[in-house]
Amino acid sequence: MLTRAPVLRPELLRIAEMVAAGARVLDVGCGDGLLLEHLARSKNVDARGIELSQAGVNASVARGLSVIQGDADTDLAEYPSRAFDYVILSQTIQATRQPKIVLEHLLRIGRYVIVSIPNFGFWKVRLKLALTGRMPITGELSHPWYETPNIHLCTIADFVALARELDARIETALAVNESGDVRTLSTPGYFDNLTAAGAIFLLTRSA
Fold this sequence. Notes:
Layout: H1 10-17, E1 24-28, H2 34-43, E2 46-51, H3 54-62, E3 66-69, H4 72-75, E4 84-90, H5 99-109, E5 110-118, H6 123-132, H7 156-165, E6 168-176, E7 182-184, H8 190-195, E8 198-205
Parallel strand pairs: 1-2, 1-4, 2-3, 4-5
Antiparallel strand pairs: 5-8, 6-7, 6-8
């Protein structure tokens, strides 16, 4: 039985808006299952999750969700192609060891792929690095360098280039500011790479 209705941060609400009602959804790195629970409640999706931490798995299962413990770097290869309508990877790709391979698997497993990233090209990140000569700490990148789970930080421009390399079509792109508000990116470019704290992409595999 699901618990009381979850309250999502703005970024996750925007991700939820991209998902069609009744869809088959896999949330990779689902954490405590908050987004999956919201989707199950509000859109009646077939909600599944994979999470690395045992604490996250336990919290998700306590919400009544079907979540297993697994590693995106090694376990996505076991999923069949087109097994899900949507595969979600929220604030996680930069923490994987092989982000290109992970994204390839996501595009194979899901008809649509939703990825959100922190943007290392954000002007505050650039300014702090330029002025202090040290790795910056921001709201999106909140850990000191020696404790951060992020091992492959990228910019919006980097991610767009990777999507193109993998022949992925960007159906929707949203810039996320520090307060969680979003704006549509018609063509992600220099201004967005400079001013957005993060971004959300809805991808499909090009025909």
